[in-house]
UniProtKB/TrEMBL annotation:
Annotated protein name in UniProt: assimilatory sulfite reductase (NADPH)
Cofactor(s) this protein requires: FMN; FAD
PANTHER family: NITRIC OXIDE SYNTHASE-RELATED, SULFITE REDUCTASE [NADPH] FLAVOPROTEIN COMPONENT
Role of this protein: This enzyme catalyzes the 6-electron reduction of sulfite to sulfide. This is one of several activities required for the biosynthesis of L-cysteine from sulfate.
Organism lineage string: Eukaryota, Fungi, Dikarya, Basidiomycota, Agaricomycotina
Provenance organism: Gymnopilus junonius
CDD domains: CyPoR_like (cd06207)
Region of interest: Disordered: 1-24
Keyword set includes Transport: yes
Pfam family, one: NAD_binding_1
Biased composition (Low complexity): 8-24
Length: 1027
């Protein structure tokens, strides 16, 4: 297994894009015993955050904790000028590194190197004892989906500014990566940048790595060091008499060409292993004299950027004889991603530019296995079990690559690609070449395993199965239930491609290791094909596991695996119907398992208070920069798409009597110096907090220290990270006491260690559990925290739990003030939401509870949301406003603004105000202001309905019936506007009252009257804001 060691060892990571539970039966491949920086007491390793976010550097930091030689590992932030700190460490002066001599190692990514590059020209000359080595895992998130790509496009502008004393090496295979990493420390008179393929090959499991055995002397150049290791600056491959030659940097695309050009007439390729120093004479010597056309492929950020490789090649061949045509091809990140994910796309591109037919890379002797699973589930190690099994067999080669998608499904989804072949019979190409995860895949896998039944309903994964191949679904469904649960588009793929669908239920009350063995036995049955028999399969498994596994006889497991397998026949679809669209798998995360048992995904981890201290000590580095018209602070809620503001509570006054059973309260906030502006009728989005005491209680029960730090990537932007305490995350960001959706039960089931809990959670999340889910959600009103306590064996790590739950959504409240009147202030009218569950437990609305508890001077994070509640453009238009309870809030803003207009001498139209609540003495909200508006003539008529104050209940629709003639005239003749704000229940009665008014006084029949009101909705003259 390749390992992540800097210095003379390999930079390859021993982690995959998914960390799996360990198994005592999976052997560890010994790390390459090469010299590393921990053997040199004066060496230092600098890990930039972007490197750790792609899974490189985390293990180095862990190993440094136990290093006994004083080696330092330093965290650095990526920003413009990021390389200056390294320059300073190597420069003469007070630097201890410069005085005593040391080799500094830095980890960064292509995008991080691009920010570091302007500082590198200031590096002092390299010496045998003082130099810089930068290890660069070539993987970059691109596009809106943040898909991981091996593109080097971000370095297009970097190559030309690198100084002559900086050498650049590029590797593609695991062996090359190890060798070039070692060579980086053998070159004494040059600083070195080494880029290696971390997108795929360096993360593969299953390779035997042979350390360099050559003896390297002092003073070697890059070219001499490469030659002693068995490499060249420029490697030629293909037809020795080629007429067309492709030149490109070493990487996954070069590996594809190497395999494709073995038997391709007329085509050759030059793979650049060292971009700097550039040797024109060596390049000319490797290009065959028969070549008439040279095609240079440059990875660039866009099609208008000129690549540096073309400039170098063109200048080298300018005066060369014979004359050759040199063409430039600019490969953008989108093209690179297409070449990597779409089968044959890159070779078709080569055909188009060379006009020579190129055969696709053929892998007939390779068995291609694709497994989809859920992270950290009981079956997630299955791919590692299979790779381990075949790696033990003489003459068999197995390669495993794990990719992870953390965005398309809460908790993530994992794709394991496993290639099995006879040793040394297949050209080494990236696993994505024979088994791509193409969104438009025609099917490539010989065996496709779906290890969680929910994935069949959420993701389009059967498209990756080759026609006529095997699909194995691990499920608790019966064949009949499979037919009723799978989407029709999935069934159509099965029928169209003639796939053989098998199901088996192996997630029973047995140990995880036994479950994985059961899956392995079923896989072997299919892998051996016609020669498979129960004794044969057991014999193969016995060599790895023995006769008894976790107390269960192997024979018994074999019998179960043989008898429980069922084939599902999918009938042809009579008529295709609409079905929910399925998501695509996109590799966008790399996970690292550290010794403490924690999993770090894209840099998210639990950490100490030191990380937060850095944010306080160096705000210029960590605080997001903002350029805008207001003083809004983007660090308030960096994950929120809307602009947020920090306002101050100045008034929190209860409007209803203390003895009354409803707490309706009035809030005022000071917005001065915040830049917050709002229009009449808009809503205020409040980012409420969970109750601190409840969060502390949950942390104590969950066994997590509330003061520990958790670093979480900001959704949608991998360059920003939250670093906060667990308490802050659970109180301010994570919706711990919100209501869980059905999918949460299914996702949580994968973390249950108790079988009863696991089955119960799976059942509630299944179609059969709809009644139970409805009871839990609507009657018991359980929260995320309640579910976790109800099924205590399901305890994902706190960082995973945060992702499973998601963020608190802002609650929106109609603004009860007009900024034209109150200035730097915003008012709200709120009623607390509380109830009692059938078990007698009190429940509170998350945000109303937060607002009710606000203290004077307390800061609140808010945002503004537009609303349909807008005043008409002409203030003379009649207004009919109907509000129930806190639905009076926007009309208070309306009336304040209208009163302000009258004070300025402007004429306003008639205003009819209808208000309803239970008791006038307790809930006549803003009653004094209403009476004042009546006296001022702002309100023409007020229809007040207090339903519990009279023997017969009176509601606002009854008051409207008293004014039917006036209402009909205003709406029909005078361009009047009607508004209703409050609960939904009076909407039909209010609608009927208006229809009756139009029928009685405007001669319309009920149907025409209803159509007229519907037309008013389109004109924004019949406006409802109900909840």
């Amino acid at each position: 297994m390749a390992s992540e060691i800097s210095g003379s060892s390999t930079p390859l990571s021993s982690t995959t894009t998914l960390s799996s539970p360990s198994s005592p039966h999976i052997h560890k491949i010994t790390e390459v015993p090469l010299e590393d920086p921990f053997n040199n007491p004066l060496s230092s390793v600098y890990v930039y955050d972007v490197a750790e976010q792609v899974g490189f550097g985390t293990l180095t930091k862990e190993w440094a904790k136990t290093a006994s030689n004083g080696t330092s590992v330093v965290d650095l932030q990526t920003r413009p000028g990021a390389g200056l700190s390294l320059v300073g460490r190597l420069s003469q002066g007070t630097s201890l590194d410069a005085l005593k001599g040391t080799t500094l190692t830095a980890y960064t990514t292509p995008s991080g190197l691009a920010l570091m590059a302007p500082s590198l020209p200031y590096l002092p000359p390299a010496t045998p004892n003082t130099r810089l080595v930068i290890q660069v895992p070539a993987v970059t998130p691109i596009g809106e989906t943040l898909a991981l790509s091996p593109t080097l496009s971000s370095l297009a502008s970097v190559w030309s500014i690198l100084p002559e004393n900086v050498s650049v090496l590029l590797s593609s295979t695991p062996q090359q990566a190890v060798d070039f990493a070692s060579l980086s420390y053998k070159v004494a008179n040059s600083h070195v940048i080494h880029l290696f393929d971390h997108h795929s090959t360096s993360r593969e499991i299953g390779h035997s790595i042979i350390p360099l055995r050559s003896t390297f002397g002092d003073g070697l150049t890059i070219e001499e060091a490469l030659q002693k290791a068995g490499y060249q600056l420029y490697e030629y491959l293909g037809d020795e008499n080629a007429t067309n030659v492709v030149i490109l940097l070493n990487g996954p695309l070069a590996l594809i060409l190497k395999a494709a050009f073995k038997n391709c007439s007329g085509l050759g390729a030059v793979v650049v292993n060292a971009l700097s120093p550039w040797n024109e004479e060596t390049l000319r010597s490797v290009i065959p004299s028969s070549a008439t056309t040279v095609h240079v492929l440059d990875e660039v950020p866009n099609s208008v950027t000129q690549g540096n490789l073309y400039v170098q090649v063109f200048s080298s061949l300018w005066n060369d004889a014979p004359k050759r045509a040199v063409y430039s091809y600019r490969i953008t990140p989108t093209q690179t991603q297409t070449f990597i994910t779409a089968a044959g796309a890159f070779l078709h591109f080569i055909e188009d530019i060379s006009h020579i037919e190129v055969q696709d890379v053929s892998t007939p002797d390779v068995k291609k296995v694709l497994l989809f699973s859920i992270p950290r589930s009981s079956l997630s190690p299955s791919a590692a079990f299979l790779e381990d099994l075949f790696s033990r067999k003489a003459g068999i080669s197995s390669r495993l690559l794990t990719d992870h998608d953390v965005f398309s499904k809460p908790g993530g989804i994992t794709a394991n690609r496993l290639l099995i072949s006879r040793s040394n019979t297949v050209d080494f190409v990236p696993i994505s070449a024979p088994l791509p995860l193409d969104p438009n895949s025609p099917g490539h896998s010989d065996f496709l395993g779906i290890l969680d039944q929910s994935l069949l309903k959420s993701h389009s994964i059967l498209k990756h199965a080759k026609k006529g191949s095997i699909v194995l679904l691990v499920t608790s469904w019966t064949p009949v239930e499979v037919l009723s649960n799978i989407p029709q588009q999935v069934a159509a793929v099965i029928v169209e491609r003639q796939l053989s669908l098998y199901i088996i239920d192996i997630k029973g009350p047995i140990q995880d290791t036994v479950q994985n063995l059961l899956f392995e036995l079923v896989f072997l049955r299919f892998f051996l094909g016609a020669s498979a028999s129960e004794p044969t399969v057991l014999q193969l498994a016995r060599t790895t596991f023995g006769d008894v596994i976790e107390g269960v006889p192997l024979v018994k497991l074999g019998s179960h695996a043989w008898s429980s397998l069922q084939k599902v026949s999918i009938p042809p679809l009579a008529t295709p119907s609409e079905s929910p669209s399925l998501k695509e798998f996109e590799a966008n995360a790399i996970a690292v398992e550290i010794p403490e048992g924690q999993t770090v995904v894209n840099g998210a981890r639990l950490s100490s208070w030191h990380d937060a201290a850095k944010h306080l000590l160096f705000p210029a580095v960590f605080t997001p920069q903002y350029e805008g018209d207001s003083s809004s602070n983007p660090s308030l809620r960096p994950e929120a798409s809307e602009t947020t503001f920090l306002i101050t509570c100045t008034v929190n006054r209860r409007l209803t009597p203390l003895e009354y059973n409803r707490n309706v309260f009035h809030l005022e906030f000071d917005t001065s110096s915040t830049g917050l502006k709002y229009a009449i009728g808009e809503a205020l989005g409040v980012h409420g907090w969970n109750d601190e005491a409840e969060v502390h209680n949950f942390c104590a029960w969950y066994g997590v220290d509330p003061e520990r730090l958790i670093t979480i990537p900001v959704p949608g932007d991998d360059t920003k990270m939250h670093t906060r305490t667990v308490l802050q995350a659970l109180q301010q960001q994570i919706d711990l006491f919100g209501r869980p959706p059905k999918s949460f039960y299914t996702d949580l089931a994968e973390y249950a260690t108790n079988d009863v809990d696991r089955y119960a959670l799976h059942f509630i999340g299944s179609p059969e559990g709809s009644f139970t889910f409805k009871k839990l959600s609507e009657k018991d009103t359980v929260t995320f925290a309640d579910v976790l306590k109800k099924y205590p064996s399901a305890k994902p790590g706190i960082e995973l739990l945060c992702e499973l739950i998601g963020d608190i959504k802002p609650r929106h409240y109609s603004i009860a003030s007009a900024q034209s009147v109150v200035g730097d202030r915003v008012d709200l009218l709120v009623v607390t939401v509380d109830w009692v569950t059938p078990e007698g437990s009190p429940r509170y609305g998350q945000c109303t509870r937060y607002l009710a508890g606000l203290k004077i001077g307390q800061k609140v994070t808010v945002s503004i949301k537009p609303s349909v509640m807008k005043l008409p453009p002409n203030p003379k238009q009649p207004l009919i406003m109907a509000g129930l309870g806190t639905g009076a809030a926007p009309f208070r803003a309306f009336l304040q603004h209208l009163a302000w207009l009258t004070q300025k001498g402007e004429e306003i139209g008639p205003v009819y105000y209808y208000f309803g609540s239970r008791h006038q003495a307790a809930e006549y909200l803003y009653g004094e202001e209403i009476e004042a508006f009546l006296l001022q003539g702002v309100i023409t008529r007020a229809g007040l309905a207090f339903s519990r104050d009279s023997p017969e209940k009176v509601y606002i629709q009854h008051k409207m019936l008293e004014d039917s003639e006036e209402l009909a005239k205003m709406l029909h003749d005078n361009q009047g506007v009607f508004y209703l704000c409050g609960p939904t229940w009076p909407v039909p009665d209010v609608y009927e009252a208006l229809v009756n008014a139009l029928v009685k006084y405007k001669g319309a029949d009920p149907i025409k009257a209803g159509e007229y009101l519907e037309g008013l909705k389109e004109e924004e003259r019949y406006v409802l804001e109900v909840y």
